[in-house]
């Protein structure tokens, strides 16, 4: 059970139950759809930009606890950030969930650090990263469905 | 535990069977492995492992046209395995048994070889809503190539095929009916004999995808009366990478080769090539000889244990599992047809199947989660995915109990 709690931390379970920034952003500047064919997770990410800054961000969709919580925590983390900062955060997040040897800056990751446990479950990395890939597609204004495969 | 104690005591000596499967002694995350993903692939008994090792360590040579001892032995072993498979499904002749990589390749062979010759613009292929992608996509490819139409027979809320609807779809333009024998994501057993009869009344040939059926029940292609029967070795306790297409000789004779190359020819010149006789016409290139030998050993093993012992044991596990899972709070079984085998697919309120899969894995229980290569079924039942436990001959009631205990962990983490 303790091993499992490393993956399903309370913060993750909370965000799964009550996701933040959940819903469509009316008249969003940018949006993209993401799909994980492995588990059927689908989510859409909506972004409003203020120049180079993400002024508003939300997501909508269904998925496993990891993907939903990741989307929720991502929206909290990138709101108010510049696109460059968001990109940097994405890279750090990917290192967190995939790279055991990565030297991580816990302070800059903030709450996202709760996903460290994903590293021990390689099949779940795609769940954790789907929202981020979709966010990137949205800000790059790419309209094809983002797939984690 | 559920009250199905009235079920007759299984005659199968499961403990003895389990000792034949070395992997079942393995530990996973500090628990004894509980392997319940048999619909994806089954584990391999010692005789199959030994046959593979023996072939490579003692008998490896390329088959056909070798005049030396080793090649003759390998050829004999390869041919002998074909006869074993022929008897296993009761085909009239061993030349009706074509070795492929898997069921998928067997179905693609029929789609491209039979299909390109027999199906034209405006013609129709009839399948059902419960097909695996491997019995959907090859027909979509064919339909695109020749301008034909795919027609799909519906299923009801229990996952039972609507037979009258299927019959209605078989019309003057139907060139083939292709149906699954046992659904991999619902467990439904289709009345294939009746379907064949239905199709024959209109002179329509029938392909049966038997991937899931062949290791749960005896299959007799002559009794079924089907024209093609596709299955794969790795689900019937044999190696991966080897599959079988049974084809009625009259069809196979008329069908053009699927792939060209070595071994499938009689003579080759730059002007004209003539093809080898059956079954070699459809087996281009060096085949998976070790796989065929291993498949022969698997068929021997399966027949030695015998379906008369296996089937009641697996039926008991299915009944026991159905009752046990129904007691789990917020669990809904997907696939509740009257005639079922092996498969217990389900969704749990408040817990995504993928989370269910990860959590039960930490208890050593292996189940599959996802769409099981049957996305139309997921859409039909309005779920993105399911978790699926599937039993085989070596499973026990204790393992079902372990699954239920693991699902209780899920409930603790995702309360409803």
Class from secondary-structure proportions of chain A: alpha+beta
The CATH architecture classification of the largest domain in chain B is 3-Layer(aba) Sandwich
CATH C-level name of the largest domain in chain B: Alpha Beta
Helix content of chain A: 40-55%
Taking all Cα atoms into account, the compactness measure Rg of chain B is: 22 Å
- Reported by name, the CATH topology of the largest domain in chain B is Aspartate Aminotransferase, domain 2
Low-confidence segments of chain B, given as residue ranges, are none
Rg of chain A over CA atoms, rounded to whole Å, is: 14 Å
Helix content of chain B: 25-40%
The amount of beta strand of chain A, in percent, is 15-25%
Strand content of chain B: 15-25%
Write the CATH architecture name of chain A.
Alpha-Beta Complex
Q: What is the secondary structure topology, with strand pairs?
A:
The complex is a heterodimer of chains A (149) and B (416).
Chain A: H1 2-7, H2 10-17, E1 30-36, E2 41-50, E3 53-62, H3 65-78, H4 83-98, H5 106-109, H6 125-139, E4 146-147
Parallel strand pairs in A: 1-4
Antiparallel strand pairs in A: 1-2, 2-3
Helix pairs in contact in A: 2-3, 3-6, 4-6
Chain B: H1 14-19, E1 27-28, E2 31-32, E3 34-35, H2 46-58, H3 69-89, E4 97-100, H4 103-118, E5 124-128, H5 137-146, E6 149-153, H6 163-169, E7 174-180, H7 192-200, E8 206-209, H8 221-224, E9 228-232, E10 243-247, H9 249-254, E11 265-268, E12 273-275, H10 289-305, H11 307-326, E13 331-333, E14 343-348, H12 353-361, E15 365-366, E16 368-370, H13 375-381, E17 386-390, H14 397-413
Parallel strand pairs in B: 3-15, 5-6, 5-7, 7-8, 8-9
Antiparallel strand pairs in B: 1-2, 4-10, 9-10, 11-12, 13-14, 14-17, 16-17
């Amino acid at each position: 059970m303790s091993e499992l709690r490393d993956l399903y931390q309370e913060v993750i379970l909370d965000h799964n139950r009550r996701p933040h920034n959940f819903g469509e952003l009316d008249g969003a500047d940018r949006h993209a759809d993401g799909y994980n064919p492995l588990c059927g997770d689908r989510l859409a990410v909506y972004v409003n930009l203020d120049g180079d800054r993400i002024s508003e961000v939300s997501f909508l969709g269904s998925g496993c606890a990891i993907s939903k919580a990741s989307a929720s925590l991502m929206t909290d983390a990138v709101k108010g950030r510049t696109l460059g900062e968001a990109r940097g955060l994405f890279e750090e997040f990917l290192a967190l969930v995939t790279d055991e040897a990565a030297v991580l800056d816990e302070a800059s990751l903030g709450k996202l650090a709760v996903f460290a446990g994903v590293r021990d479950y390689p099949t779940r990395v795609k769940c954790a990263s789907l929202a981020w890939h979709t966010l990137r597609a949205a800000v790059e204004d790419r309209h094809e469905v983002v797939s984690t495969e | 535990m559920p009250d199905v104690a009235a079920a007759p005591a299984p005659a199968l000596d499961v403990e003895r069977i389990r000792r034949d499967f070395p992997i079942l002694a393995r530990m996973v995350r500090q628990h004894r492995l509980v392997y319940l993903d048999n619909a994806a692939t089954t584990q391999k008994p010692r005789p199959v492992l030994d046959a593979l090792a023996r072939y490579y360590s003692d008998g490896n040579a390329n088959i056909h046209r070798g005049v030396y001892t080793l090649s003759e032995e390998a050829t004999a072993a390869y041919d002998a395995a074909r006869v074993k498979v022929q008897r296993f499904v009761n085909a009239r002749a061993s030349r009706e048994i074509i070795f492929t990589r898997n069921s998928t390749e067997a179905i693609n062979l029929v789609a491209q070889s039979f299909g390109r010759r027999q199906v034209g613009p405006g013609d129709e292929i009839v399948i059902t809503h419960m097909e695996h992608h491997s019995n959907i996509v090859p027909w979509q490819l064919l339909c695109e190539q020749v301008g034909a139409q795919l027609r799909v027979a519906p299923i009801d809320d229990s996952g039972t095929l609507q037979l009258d609807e299927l019959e209605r779809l078989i019309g003057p333009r139907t060139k083939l009916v292709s149906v699954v024998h046992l659904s991999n994501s619902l467990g439904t057993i289709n009345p294939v004999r009746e379907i064949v009869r239905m199709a024959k009344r209109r002179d329509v040939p029938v392909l049966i995808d038997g991937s899931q059926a062949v290791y749960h029940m005896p299959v007799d292609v002559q009794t079924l009366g089907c024209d093609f029967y596709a299955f794969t070795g790795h689900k019937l306790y044999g190696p991966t990478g080897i599959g079988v297409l049974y084809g009625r000789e009259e069809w196979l004779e008329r069908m053009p080769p699927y792939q060209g190359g070595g071994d499938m020819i009689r003579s080759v010149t730059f002007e004209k090539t003539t093809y080898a006789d059956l079954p070699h016409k459809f087996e281009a290139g060096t085949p998976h000889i070790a796989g065929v030998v291993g498949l022969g050993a698997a068929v021997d093993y399966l027949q030695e244990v015998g379906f008369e012992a296996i089937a009641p044991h697996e039926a008991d596990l299915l009944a026991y599992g159905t009752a046990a899972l129904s007691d789990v709070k917020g669990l809904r079984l997907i696939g509740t047809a009257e005639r079922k085998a092996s498969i217990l697919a389900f969704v749990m309120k408040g817990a995504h199947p993928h989370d269910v899969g990860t959590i039960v894995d930490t208890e050593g229980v292996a189940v599959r989660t996802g769409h099981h290569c049957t996305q139309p079924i997921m859409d039909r039942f309005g779920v993105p995915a399911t978790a699926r436990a599937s039993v085989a001959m070596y499973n026990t009631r204790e393992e079902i109990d372990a699954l239920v205990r693991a699902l209780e962990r899920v409930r603790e983490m995702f309360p409803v």
